[in-house]
Amino acid sequence: MRIALLATCIGEAMFPRAPRATVELLERLGHEVVYPQGQACCGQMHVNTGYFTEALPVIRNHVEAFEPVLDGAWDAVVVPSGSCTGSIRHQQAMVASRLGDEALATRAARVADRTYELSELLVDVLGTVDVGAYFPHRVTLHPTCHSLRMIRVGDRPQRLLRAVEDLELVDLPSAETCCGFGGTFSLKNAPTSTAMLEDKVAAIRSTGAEVVTAGDYSCLMHIGGGLSREGAGVTTMHLAEILASTRETPAAVGGAW
Amino acid sequence: MSVDLGMPGVWAPKGAAQTSGHGAHPADPLRWGPTFPEAAAEALGDRQLRRNLARATSTIRGKRAAVVGEVTDWEELRDAGRAIKTRVMAELPELLLQLEEQVTARGGTVHWARDAAEANRIVADLVKATGETEVVKVKSMATQEIGLNEALAEEGIEAVETDLAELIVQLAGDMPSHILVPAIHRSRAEIREIFLARMDDVPRELSDAPAELAEAARLHLRRTFLRAKVAISGANFAVAETGTLAVVESEGNGRMCLTLPETLITVMGIEKLVPTWRDLEVFLQLLPRSSTGERMNPYTSMWTGVTKGDGPQAFHLVLLDNGRTRALADDVGRAALHCIRCSACLNVCPVYERVGGHAYGSVYPGPIGAILTPQLTGAAGHGDPGSSLPYASTLCGACYDVCPVKIDIPALLVDLRARQVDGDRRRILPGAWDVAMRGASWAMSSAKRFAPAARSARLGRLLARDGKIRSVPFPGSLWTRSRDLPAPPEETFRDWWSRTRGDGDEA
Description:
Number of domains of chain A: 2
Number of helices of chain A: 14
Number of strands of chain B: 12
Oligomer: heterodimer
Strand order of the largest sheet of chain B: 1-10-7-4-2-3
Order of helices and strands of chain A: EHHEHHEHHHEHEHHEHHEHEH
CATH class of the domain at 72-324 in chain B: Alpha Beta
Number of helices of chain B: 22
Mean pLDDT of chain A: 97
Low-confidence stretches of chain B: 1-9, 13-23
CATH superfamily of the domain at 72-324 in chain B: NagB/RpiA/CoA transferase-like
Radius of gyration of chain B: 26 Å
CATH architecture of the domain at 72-324 in chain B: 3-Layer(aba) Sandwich
Largest sheet of chain A: 4 strands, parallel
CATH topology of the domain at 72-324 in chain B: Rossmann fold
Helix content of chain A: 40-55%
Distance between the termini of chain A: 31 Å
Mean pLDDT of chain B: 92
Largest interface: A-B, 79 and 73 residues
Structural class of chain B: alpha/beta
Shape of chain B: globular
Strand content of chain B: 5-15%
Radius of gyration of chain A: 18 Å
Largest sheet of chain B: 6 strands, parallel
Distance between the termini of chain B: 85 Å
């Protein structure tokens, strides 16, 4: 398959290892990955903070960058983020429509129909659960709110992780509870956000895991920030990084991020 | 009896942090105290409160999950609940007139109240007309919302709350912090202290065992029930087709109030309607499982007008607007009116669990409060504490998943945020967020601008030690006060791609 990658703004600027791992993983599985150069951001931050007017040009840019998928240039769009996928699927068309741009809303909805979060793409589109990865570490999964409740990936990440050779997957207590990030919530309501983070960090530490993984680097930036501040010695890694790890080129573990 | 009602002075036991941030009873039960971030930050300092809330909410979450899990058609029930409420909102004027006609035909009297003041005036006049100076009350959010007890006190009428938790709140001179369990912020030890200080007929050897506390309240209330001539209730549902009112409860105090007195006055928000008797089937399955985590609540009382020789011989229904038609006029926001006040969203909310109900500055706290309160009050702009409520959420979506009528609370929160932002666009000087978001919009709507912006994050490496940044100036300090930041990468993804795969779109 020819798959177009949305690196995501945070992946582009702060965590390029997640989109890199996505590229390496999909290429290893025999697929062709394309990086549409016009891409920037899906608009989630603006939408969730209430800045619809400011979100609109960001959404328009995204739709223009990924619209070739509708003409068969690529078979699908992959996003290594549950929340960006959720915004593309549930917010882009809504915002365009609210601001009176019905044409853009229609185009956004059509692009969204061809857009998949990484675990969805692997399990549903490519029909793969065992991606041939090797990761000899004790791992716990934070399932992330938007993956769970906005796009409903269900247990796809767990199934992918269980198929990884030598990976020990341990349950995270209160896994489905939010880490407290919430985008600008982490700044506007910093003390409440931090109280939630403290509980998430304590739950992660209680598992004895070396690595906490998730399908979203925004949550991992937050969780890693708490782990690092506490000197917890737990590493955050995106699901793609674990799935990209092989016996030949094993992923390194260490540091909070 | 000398219950200390409406007296100044909020009960604040020694050592307990004052979590409410309000003085005595606020003038507006929908809008008190500071903004949510300020009130939440203060509440977070009360470790005991956080432990109490964590224990209470996790218990009720577990009960709800267990009984909901038993119902094989739960999702279909939720869909039905939503569909019925959507129809009610679409046909509200016609249904309300039908209800009025039915109630009137069966011997009741219907009153219409535009706002809290009008509703309080109507109720006070109705009570005065009976010559009574004491009324018993069934737990009711509508009467909390309009501050009825305080309004009656000003008219020399004493209102006695008969729901146990509501009685605790009343005796303490407190505000409710939960829709179902208004005294959830109180520990057993605090409740014992409140009873000893404020309940005249309490046994002095009272312990803090729940059964003893409940028994003390039962004995205290019994005499009041037998004496009361007037009762005031809210309503969980009203059936337009038959004029039937319904109250769903656990303790039986409601049944006493609804049957023993001579006069019954019910105050009901206009959104509480269901079109037909048959519709109750859906809600009587949804509500108890979502609310108390029971298969069925112990007491469901229904009454239709007046029945000669049986129960109250005078029945008045006060239909309350108080901002509801404002919410109804909004095509997105009106979904908040579907709420059946089960409080499941409070119990699963990670924000509510940590800061408690008083931080929301409204009798409607938690996720539903964050979308309902600002709509009822028409909060807009930075001067109104209610305008901070739509931001009191991480948009984690746990509330939407448990809502028995499928209110998409996260989507409504986002919509209300947009309205706050748009309301502020009239300001001459933009705020810091406005400037930041406009700049980010400019940078993120073009790869030509975003690529260099992303690359410039590299400068942050100057601040990093051992791969992390521990401190940055304001506003970044809002993050780094409690969390580290990762050192930005040396190479953006785009640059990695160009270096390893070439520049073109086609790999």
